[in-house]
C-alpha cells in the first residue's frame, strides 16, 4: 500500500516576512485558497488513502497541522498521522522516524516522500507517475523523481542520470543515478540544461519502508542505532520521552547526503509535471497572475509605472512608483524591499535579526495557538495590549504569571473565566482584572469565536512568564531562570 510522508517542519526563512519560523510558509495560502500543506494533501487525490497520510513536523506546529488537515473536505484532525520531532535533525532522521512508524503498521508499505512547500501544475501527471514509480519501489529500489528542467536554475541541486535501469515502468524510462550535483553556477547550469542528462532534485522519493531502513543501517549506522532505540519503545508509554532523549543525539544530515549518494539502489525517473520549489519570492512572482507589465500586485496597491515587480500588502495602502525588478512585501510588523536578483539574501536578513534577538524574525504579528490566536496591538516597556481570539469550545491553560497583571475586556462572544477562587461568565462589554500570581483560565463555551482585549502591566511581559497547572493540549511550563536573573 502507498503511504505519503509529508515533510512539514521547515522554517521558510527566504519568504520572510510572510513566513516566520513559528508560522512558516507551508501553513500559508501563497497561491490559491488552500495552504501549501493542504495543497500537498489534496494533490494526492485518491492515490493515497487519508488514513495513509503521515505528516512530520515540529512539536510546536503539531496543532497547526491537525487544524489545517481537519479543514479539508472529508477530513478530521485525527485522520492524518502527525509525527512530531522534538527538534529539527534534517531529512534523514525525519524520514527514518516516519519509516519506523509506517513499517510497524504495514511491513510491505511503499513510502512517497513529499516536501510540503512545492507547487505542481500537472497533478494528474504527477499522480500517474507516482503510481508507475511505485512498481520500481516494490523491487527494492530507491526512486527519485528528476524534474525535467526548463531553464538554467542555480538555486536547485541536480541529478545526473547514468545507464538505463534494467527494471522499467510504463510511459517513461528509469535510469541509474550517476551522481548528485550541488547547486551550480549559472554557466554550469546552462551546460546541464543543454546536456539533457541532468534533472532538478525535487526531494520527491519512493521506496519501501523496509528498504530505506536497511539502507540507513548500511550507510548511517549511528542513525540506525538511534532509530532502533526509538523502535523498541514505540508501543510503550514512554515512547515520546524516548524520542526526546534520542533525537538530540542524531546527526543532522539530509537523506541525499547520508544515504542516496552512497546507495547502489538509487534510480531516477524523469518527471515533467510543472514542478516549482516555492523557496523564495521570485518563484511566487513567476507563478502568480501578472499584469501587462509583469507586475504581481496583492492588496491595496497604488501602482504607478512599475515593471516586473512583486508588491504585497497585508493591510495598509502601499504606493509603488517606478519600480523595476523589485520585491516589496509589507506586513503589519515588518517590511521587505529587495531587488529581484538578491532574494536569496532574505535568509541572511533573518539570520541577522535572530542574532539581534528581534522577535519579528521568528514570530508573526498574529500568533497561532491550539486554542486560537493572539495579536499584539501595542506594547512598551511596562504594558502590552493584545487581541485574543478563542475558538468555539477551546480553552487556555489554567495558569498564573509571576511578573504581570492582566485586564480582560470581552469584545465579542461569551467568556468562561476562572479568576482565583471565582468562576463566572462574561459577555460583551464586561471585564475582569487578574492580579499577578493569581491562577486564571479563559475558555469559550459558545459556538462563535470569543474575542477579548487583554491589557498586561508589569516589569516583565515576556511570553515565558507563565506557570501552567492544567492544559488540555499537553503543554508544559517553561523554566523561568533566564528572566528571574534579570529582575
What is the topology?
Elements: E1 2-7, H1 36-43, E2 53-58, H2 62-70, E3 81-85, H3 90-105, E4 110-115, E5 118-120, H4 123-137, E6 142-147, E7 158-164, E8 175-181, H5 186-195, E9 198-208, H6 209-219, H7 221-231, H8 239-246, H9 255-260, E10 266-271, E11 275-277, H10 281-287, E12 296-298, E13 301-304, E14 310-313, E15 318-321, E16 326-330, E17 335-339, H11 346-355, E18 366-369, E19 372-379, E20 383-390, E21 398-400, E22 404-412, E23 415-419, E24 422-426, E25 431-434, E26 440-443, E27 450-458, E28 467-470, H12 481-484
Parallel strand pairs: 1-2, 1-4, 2-3, 6-10, 12-14, 13-15, 14-16
Antiparallel strand pairs: 4-9, 5-11, 6-9, 7-8, 7-9, 8-10, 16-17, 18-19, 19-20, 20-27, 21-28, 22-25, 22-27, 23-24, 23-26
Helix pairs in contact: 3-6, 3-7, 6-7, 7-8
Descriptors:
single chain, 487 residues, Spore Coat Polysaccharide Biosynthesis Protein SpsA, Chain A, Jelly Rolls, 3 domains, six-stranded antiparallel sheet, five-stranded mixed β-barrel, 32% strand, disordered C terminus
Amino acid at each position: 500500500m502507498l503511504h505519503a510522508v509529508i515533510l512539514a517542519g521547515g522554517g521558510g526563512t527566504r519568504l520572510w516576512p510572510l513566513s516566520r519560523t513559528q508560522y512558516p510558509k507551508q501553513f500559508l495560502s501563497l497561491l490559491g485558497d488552500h495552504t501549501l500543506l493542504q495543497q500537498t494533501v489534496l494533490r494526492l487525490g485518491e492515490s493515497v488513502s487519508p488514513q495513509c497520510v503521515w505528516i512530520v513536523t515540529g512539536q510546536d506546529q503539531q496543532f497547526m497541522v491537525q487544524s489545517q488537515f481537519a479543514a479539508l473536505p472529508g477530513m478530521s484532525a485525527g485522520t492524518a498521522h502527525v509525527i512530531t520531532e522534538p527538534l529539527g535533525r534534517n531529512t534523514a532522521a525525519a524520514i527514518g522516524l516516519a519509516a519506523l512508524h509506517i513499517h510497524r503498521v504495514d511491513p510491505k508499505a511503499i513510502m512517497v516522500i513529499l516536501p510540503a512547500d512545492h507547487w505542481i501544475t500537472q497533478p494528474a501527471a504527477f499522480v500517474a507517475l507516482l503510481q508507475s514509480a511505485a512498481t520500481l519501489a516494490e523491487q527494492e529500489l530507491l526512486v527519485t523523481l528528476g524534474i525535467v528542467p526548463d531553464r538554467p536554475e542555480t538555486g536547485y541541486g541536480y541529478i545526473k542520470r547514468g545507464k538505463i535501469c534494467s527494471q522499467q515502468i510504463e510511459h517513461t524510462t528509469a535510469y541509474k543515478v550517476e551522481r548528485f550535483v550541488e547547486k551550480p553556477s549559472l554557466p554550469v547550469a546552462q551546460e546541464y540544461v543543454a546536456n539533457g542528462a541532468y534533472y532538478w532534485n525535487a526531494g520527491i522519493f519512493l521506496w519501501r519502508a523496509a528498504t530505506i531502513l536497511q539502507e540507513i543501517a548500511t550507510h548511517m549506522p549511528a542513525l540506525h542505532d538511534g532509530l532502533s532505540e526509538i523502535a523498541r519503545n514505540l508501543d510503550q508509554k514512554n515512547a515520546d520521552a524516548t524520542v526526546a532523549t534520542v533525537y538530540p543525539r542524531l546527526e543532522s544530515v539530509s537523506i541525499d547526503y547520508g544515504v542516496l549518494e552512497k546507495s547502489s539502489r538509487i534510480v531516477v525517473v524523469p518527471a515533467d509535471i510543472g514542478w516549482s520549489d516555492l523557496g523564495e519570492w521570485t518563484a511566487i512572482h513567476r507563478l502568480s497572475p501578472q499584469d501587462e507589465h509583469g507586475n504581481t500586485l496583492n492588496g491595496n496597491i497604488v501602482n504607478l509605472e512599475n515593471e516586473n515587480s512583486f508588491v504585497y500588502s497585508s493591510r495598509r495602502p502601499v504606493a509603488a512608483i517606478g519600480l523595476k525588478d523589485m520585491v516589496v512585501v509589507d506586513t503589519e510588523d515588518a517590511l521587505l524591499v529587495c531587488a529581484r536578483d538578491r532574494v536569496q539574501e532574505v535568509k541572511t536578513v533573518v539570520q541577522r535579526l535572530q542574532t539581534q534577538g528581534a522577535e519579528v524574525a521568528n514570530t508573526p504579528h498574529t500568533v497561532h495557538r491550539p486554542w486560537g490566536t493572539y495579536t499584539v496591538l501595542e506594547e512598551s516597556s511596562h504594558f502590552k495590549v493584545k487581541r485574543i481570539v478563542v475558538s468555539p469550545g477551546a480553552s487556555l491553560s489554567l495558569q498564573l504569571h509571576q511578573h504581570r497583571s492582566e485586564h480582560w475586556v470581552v469584545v465579542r462572544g461569551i467568556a468562561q473565566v476562572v479568576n482565583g477562587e471565582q468562576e463566572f461568565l462574561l459577555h460583551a462589554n464586561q471585564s475582569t482584572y487578574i492580579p499577578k500570581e493569581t491562577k486564571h483560565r479563559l475558555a469559550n463555551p459558545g459556538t462563535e469565536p470569543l474575542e477579548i482585549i487583554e491589557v498586561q502591566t508589569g516589569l516583565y511581559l515576556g511570553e515565558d512568564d507563565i506557570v501552567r497547572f492544567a492544559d488540555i493540549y499537553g503543554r508544559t511550563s517553561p523554566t523561568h531562570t533566564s528572566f528571574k536573573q534579570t529582575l
